[in-house]
Amino acid sequence: MTLDAVLAKIDENLPQATDRLLDLLRIPSISTDPAFVADCDRAADWLVEDLKSIGFDASKRPTPGHPMVMAHAQGTGTHVMFYGHYDVQPVDPLDLWDIPPFEPALENTDKGMVIRGRGASDDKGQLMTFVEACRAWVQVHGSLPIKVSIFFEGEEESGSPSLVPFMEENAQELTADVALICDTGLFQSTVPAITTQLRGMLTEEFSLRGASRDLHSGMYGGLAGNPIHVLSSLIAGLHDDTGRITLAGFYDDVPELSDEIRSQWQNLAFDHASFLGDVGLSVPAGEDGRTPLEMIWSRPTCEINGIWGGYTGDGFKTVLPAEAHAKLSFRLVGQQDPDKIHAAFEAYINANLPDDFSVDFTAHRGASASQMATTNPVFEKSRLALSDEWPQPGAYGGCGGSIPIAGFFKEILGMDAMLIGFGKDDDAIHSPNEKYDMESFHKGTRSWARVLAALAQ
Amino acid sequence: MTLDAVLAKIDENLPQATDRLLDLLRIPSISTDPAFVADCDRAADWLVEDLKSIGFDASKRPTPGHPMVMAHAQGTGTHVMFYGHYDVQPVDPLDLWDIPPFEPALENTDKGMVIRGRGASDDKGQLMTFVEACRAWVQVHGSLPIKVSIFFEGEEESGSPSLVPFMEENAQELTADVALICDTGLFQSTVPAITTQLRGMLTEEFSLRGASRDLHSGMYGGLAGNPIHVLSSLIAGLHDDTGRITLAGFYDDVPELSDEIRSQWQNLAFDHASFLGDVGLSVPAGEDGRTPLEMIWSRPTCEINGIWGGYTGDGFKTVLPAEAHAKLSFRLVGQQDPDKIHAAFEAYINANLPDDFSVDFTAHRGASASQMATTNPVFEKSRLALSDEWPQPGAYGGCGGSIPIAGFFKEILGMDAMLIGFGKDDDAIHSPNEKYDMESFHKGTRSWARVLAALAQ
C-alpha cells in the first residue's frame, strides 16, 4: 500500500532528516534583532535549496523586512497551502542555556532523545516535519498525493510587519483549498490535536518621563515624583483583586464558552497540576472563578513582558531616574478588537498619569483571536489520520498563543486554516534550552504523510 | 594682613588649581564597579602626591576595598580633620552626556564658567577647594594657621564598606577637635550654608522568582503568575494615597520639626517652584500636608532606584519571565533605625508575596540620620567667615542626602562634624553632565582659607 512505503521511507530517512534540521538550526535567524538580518536571509536560502531538491518550484521573495519563501509542487486534487516560519526568538538570558543556542545537539534525556537548540520546536523542527513528509512521498512515488504549496515566513517572532501586505499583493498565488499550519502542540504532550481556537494579541511598549534629567535621590527624593514608582502603580492597577483587567470595556467582546466547547474541554481532563508543576508552580494565578483551561485558552490576559528603569548594574546608585519603560502584551479572545483595546490602554495610562509626567507609546501591534469552523471535511479526515499515528485519538482543542496567520488566511484569502503541531509543553519555546522531542519530529513527519494520504481520499 | 595675602594667592593660583582638578577628574574612579579598581587606586596615589607637594605627611592606606588617604600637617591650635571622597558615581546613561564623562572640560554657560565632568562637584571639585586653600596658606606663610589633618575615602558612592572598621582601627589618628566635611551645597545655589541635619539611608536590592524558567506568555499567560506584575504591585503598595510609606512602624521614630528649626527654615524662604522648575517639574509629589523643604530635609522617603525584568532589548518577546529585580533606598530621619526598617521591609515583602513566589534579599546597608549641635563655637566662627566671602550671610540648613561619615565621626570618635560645601542645585551630581561652577571652586577655596583663619582666632 502506498502510505506504508512512505512511512517506511520516513523511518529510514530519520538520521539524514535530523542532520538537515540540525543544519537549519545552526543559522541564528533571530528576526527581531537587526544584527541577524543576513542570517535570516541565509535561512530562507537554505529552505529554497532544500525544497528545490524535492522538486518544488521554490523561490525567495523580498519584502521590506525579512524574505518570504514560496514553493509549489505539481499535483492534482485538494490543494493545501502549508505555512511555517523560519525565524526564531532571541536567546537571552544566554547564561541559562546549557549549550550555545545555535550549536544544536541531540541529547538523551529521561524522557527520550531530544533535539536541543533555539528554534528546535518553534518553528524549524515543526516546519521540517512537513518538508520531510513531502520528501518521503516524492522519493517513494515520484510525486505528492495532492497539490501542495508551501509558504514560509521570516518575521513571525517580530510581529510579522510584512505579512499582510505580502498576502494582499500575492493573494492569487497564496490561495488554496485549505491552509495547514504547523506551529502548535500536542495536547498535554500526548494527545494529537487540531487547534481550533487561538487567542489574538496586542503588544504595547511605552516610556514614562518625569524630570528632565536623572536626579539625586537625596536632593530630590520625597519632593520629585519617581517614574519607576508611577510605572509600578500603573501596572499594578491594570488588574483588580479578582485578577480581572480594569481597562474600560475590556470584556465587552469576550464571549462565554458554548456548552459544546465546554463539554469538549471537560472531556480533555486537563491536568493543570502537572502542567504547572513542570515549571515549578502549583497555583493557578489567573481570574477568580475560571478553570485553568479557560485561563489559557479562552480568557484574555495582560502580561508585562519587560520592564526597565534607573540603575540596574552592579552595586548601588541612589538615582531618582528621569524615565522608566515597559513592554506588555494582551492576549485577546472572541471579538475583542485590538485597536479598541489599544485605545482603552492609552486612555487608562493618560488618565492615571500624575502631574509633570509624560508618556510615549512607541509601538503597538495587534491581531484578533481566531475560531475555526470544523465543518470543512478536511478537519475530520485529518483528525482520523492523526488517530492512526498516535496512541490516543486526535482531539480538537484551544491554544493560548497567538498565530495571526490563521486569521489572515480567513480574512484576506477566505481559506480555512487547520493547525496541527507536535510541540510538547516542556519544549521551552521562547526560553533557554528550547528542545524538540525526537518523537515529535519523527511521528510528526509520519503524521503529515498520513494527513496528505487522507486528504487524497 | 595674613588672610588677604592668602586670598590674593588663591586668585593668582586659579588657572593652575583648575588644571590640577581637571587632572584628577580624568581618573575614572567609579568605586561601585569592579572594572575600575585600578583607577580608584590611581586617584588615591594622585592625592597622596599632591598633598606631599604641600608639605603634608601623606600616605595611602589599604583596606579590603578601595584605599583611604591620610595626611597630617604640622601645626598648633585647633585641630581639624577634613573629610572628602575621591570616588565617583557610575556614568550611565552615557548617551545623555554632552562630553565623555572622564574628559572634563571648561564650558562657558549662560550662568558663567563651569567645570564639566563626572566628579566635578561630587566630590573631587569640593575636596580640592580645601586642598587649594591649604596650598595657598603654605605658599604665603610656609605653614597652616591651625593643625590640619586630611582623610579621603574611596568608597563613599558604594556604601563605604571599609569605613567603619578603618575608623575603629585608626581611632586615635583620626580624632581631632572637629571634623570638616565638604560634600554639601550652597542653599538654593546662593546662600553659604552649614548643614546641621542629614537624612540617613537604607539601601535594599531584591529579586522575585516565580516559575523555574521563562515561560511563553501564550502558553502560560493567565494561568502562571508574572513576577514583574507582582513586583509592581509590591512597589505600588509601599506608599498609600497620601504619599505615606506603609511599612509597619515606619514613622514611629520620625520626629516633628522643633519650633526653632521650623522658624529657621521659614526664614530661608525656599523657592520650590524654581528648584523643581530647573529639572522640568512643577508639582511637589511627596506626602500630603508637608512643605517642600520638609519633604527633602526632614521627612523619610522610599525611592525605587532601579528595576529590571523580562525582555528589554529591541523589538518584542512575548515572554512571561521567571524573575524580576529591584533596587530601592529609604532616606531616614530622626531616630529611625535602619535595621528595624530593613526588618519591616522584609516582613512586608514576605507577607504580600503570592503563592509560588520566592524572594532573595541580596544586599542591604544602612546609616542613621544625623543632627548636629551647633553649640560648639567653631560653627558660629565658620558661619561668620562664610558671610564675609559671599554676598549673603551664612545659614544653618538641612540636607536631604545621606552623609553617614558625619554620624560616624560622632559615634565612633566623639567629634562634632561641620558640613560646609559649595555645590549648586543644578550641578547634576549622580546624573549625566555633572558640573561644578568655577564660582563654587574659586569662592569655595577662598571660603576655606577664611574658615582656617577664623578657627585660628
Quickly count the helices of chain A: 14
Query: Which blocks of ≥5 consecutive residues of chain A have pLDDT under 50?
Result: none
Name the assembly state: homodimer
Specify the CATH architecture of the largest domain in chain A: 3-Layer(aba) Sandwich
Give the overall silhouette of chain A. Answer: globular
The radius of gyration of chain A is: 23 Å
Largest interface: A-B, 99 and 100 residues
Helix content of chain A: 25-40%
Overall pLDDT confidence of chain A: 95
Number of domains of chain A: 2
Identify the CATH homologous superfamily of the largest domain in chain A: Zn peptidases
Report the strand count of chain A. 18
Residues in β-strands, percent of chain A: 15-25%
CATH fold-level assignment of the largest domain in chain A? Aminopeptidase
Secondary-structure content class of chain A = alpha+beta
Terminal CA distance of chain A:
14 Å
Largest sheet of chain A: 9 strands, mixed
CATH top level assignment of the largest domain in chain A: Alpha Beta
Structure description:
The structure is a homodimer of 457-residue chains. The first copy, chain A, has helices at 2-25, 37-53, 124-141, 163-169, 171-174, 217-220, 227-236, 259-268, 272-277, 292-297, 338-352, 377-389, 404-413, 438-456, and strands spanning 57-61, 68-72, 79-85, 105-109, 112-116, 147-153, 178-181, 193-198, 200-209, 215-216, 301-310, 319-320, 323-332, 358-367, 370-371, 395-399, 416-420, 435-437. With 457 residues, the first copy, chain A, is of the alpha+beta class. Chain A folds into two domains: 2-198 and 369-456, Aminopeptidase; 200-272 and 289-367, 2-Layer Sandwich (Alpha-Beta Plaits), CATH 3.30.70.360. In chain A, the strands form four sheets. In chain A, strands 1, 2, 3, 6, 7, 8, 15, 16 and 17 form a nine-stranded mixed beta sheet that branches. The first copy, chain A, has a four-stranded antiparallel beta sheet with strand order 11-13-9-14, with helices on one face. The first copy, chain A, has a three-stranded antiparallel beta sheet with strand order 4-5-18. The first copy, chain A, starts with a helix and ends with a helix. In chain A, 55% of the residues are buried. Chains A and B meet through β9, β10, α6, α7 and α9 of A and β9, β10, α6, α7 and α9 of B. β11 of chain A pairs antiparallel with β11 of chain B.
